[in-house]
Amino acid sequence: MVTVAEHTVNWSGYRTGHRDWGYQELLPVTFDRLQYEEALRATVR
Length: 45
Hints:
0% of the residues are buried. By secondary structure, the protein is of the alpha+beta class. It contains one helix and three strands, in the order E-E-E-H. Strand 1 (2-4) and strand 2 form a beta hairpin.
């Protein structure tokens, strides 16, 4: 799940959906929203 807040972007609840194993042990990751959006824009340049 990706949750966008005013100053942050959070990734959590990772899952594969089609495999016997999963990513339950991974902790949520929080990014600075401005840096996250800049990184996304850089991928389309």
